């Protein structure tokens, strides 16, 4: 295949954490890009786990400063990690699915090179995905902050009893609930944990946030969707052992009286899709709709 002129001059490759089995695919993709006169950098942990030498190696936090496209080989978890690491840089991501569902990874491993050839030729669309910004307040002081592309989850830990939460939206009291926890989800995250907990599927272009209770004690406590400009204040009224997670990763343990403040982040994540990508086609395929 002859070299083509591409808008991307330097591409970073990020592989699934602790998965050395994808070495051949990473090397195949790197070789393909080099033949197109595109410079290649390999994320540090990916190179170490796959025993890859002979390429420029960079830490994941440095990718945004040296590359203009990141290709993520793995599942949605790998994509989420890469997206958060590159938040401060306007660099699009494209995913090659090496996980299970792969709602965020468009290219299959079998058609990876064919798909990348089309993308390098300019046959793609860029979509902006919203993020959540969350702050943890202890004793009226902000002690931690983070971002989530999928969801912010406040939940009980281990075998502890139900936790009691107070939920306020835009300084208006909504309710108190006893449950296993609460999921605050972006539209992107509504096909993740939120879906398993009975939440709605929101189209990623929708300007909304889903609030989904986890196993509520009162069965009438149902998921709701609110405007993405809303500010959500969650108060730990009673808990023996609780925590807050960002995109499935433990962020901080919580105690009674702590607050989790969630709102839409100013930053967004750029996902690159091949031309012809359809969110509905993806849902039909991944969820086995008829």
Automatic annotation (TrEMBL):
Gene3D superfamilies: Probable inorganic polyphosphate/atp-NAD kinase, domain 1, Probable inorganic polyphosphate/atp-NAD kinase, domain 2. Its cofactor is a divalent metal cation. Pfam families: NAD_kinase, NAD_kinase_C. It is an enzyme of class 2 (transferase). NAD(+) binds at residues 76-77, 150-151, 161, 178, 180, 191-196, 249. It is found in: Cytoplasm. Transmembrane segments: none annotated. The keyword Cytoplasm applies. One of its GO terms (molecular function) is ATP binding. The active site is at 76 (proton acceptor). Involved in the regulation of the intracellular balance of NAD and NADP, and is a key enzyme in the biosynthesis of NADP. Catalyzes specifically the phosphorylation on 2'-hydroxyl of the adenosine moiety of NAD to yield NADP. Belongs to the NAD kinase family. This is NAD kinase. It comes from Methyloradius palustris. The lineage of its organism: Bacteria, Pseudomonadati, Pseudomonadota, Betaproteobacteria, Nitrosomonadales. The gene is nadK.
């Amino acid at each position: 295949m002859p070299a083509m002129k591409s808008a991307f001059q330097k591409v970073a490759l990020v592989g699934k954490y602790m998965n050395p089995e994808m070495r051949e695919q990473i090397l195949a993709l790197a070789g393909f890009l080099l033949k197109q006169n595109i410079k290649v950098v390999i994320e540090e942990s990916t190179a170490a786990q796959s025993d890859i030498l002979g390429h420029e190696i960079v830490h994941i936090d440095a990718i945004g400063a040296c590359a203009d496209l990141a290709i993520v080989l793995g599942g949605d978890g790998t994509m989420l990690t890469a997206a958060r690491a590159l938040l401060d840089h306007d660099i699009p991501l494209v995913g090659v699915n090496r996980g299970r569902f792969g709602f965020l990874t468009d290219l299959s491993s079998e058609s990876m090179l064919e798909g990348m050839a089309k993308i390098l030729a300019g046959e793609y669309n860029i979509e902006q995905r919203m993020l959540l910004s969350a702050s943890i307040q202890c004793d009226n002081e902000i002690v931690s902050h983070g971002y989530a592309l999928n969801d912010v989850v406040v939940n009980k830990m281990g075998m502890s009893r139900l936790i009691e939460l107070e939920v306020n939206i835009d300084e208006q009291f909504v309710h108190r609930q006893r449950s296993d926890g609460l999921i605050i989800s972006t539209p992107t995250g509504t096909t993740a944990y939120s879906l398993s907990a009975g939440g709605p599927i929101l189209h990623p272009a929708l300007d909304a946030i889903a609030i989904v209770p986890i196993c509520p004690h009162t069965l009438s406590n149902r998921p709701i969707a609110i405007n993405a400009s809303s500010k959500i204040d969650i108060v730990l009224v009673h808990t023996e052992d609780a925590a807050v997670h960002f995109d499935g990763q433990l962020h901080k343990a919580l105690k009674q009286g702590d607050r989790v403040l969630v709102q839409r982040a100013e930053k967004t994540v750029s996902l690159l899709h091949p031309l012809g990508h359809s969110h509905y086609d993806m849902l039909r395929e991944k969820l086995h709709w008829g």
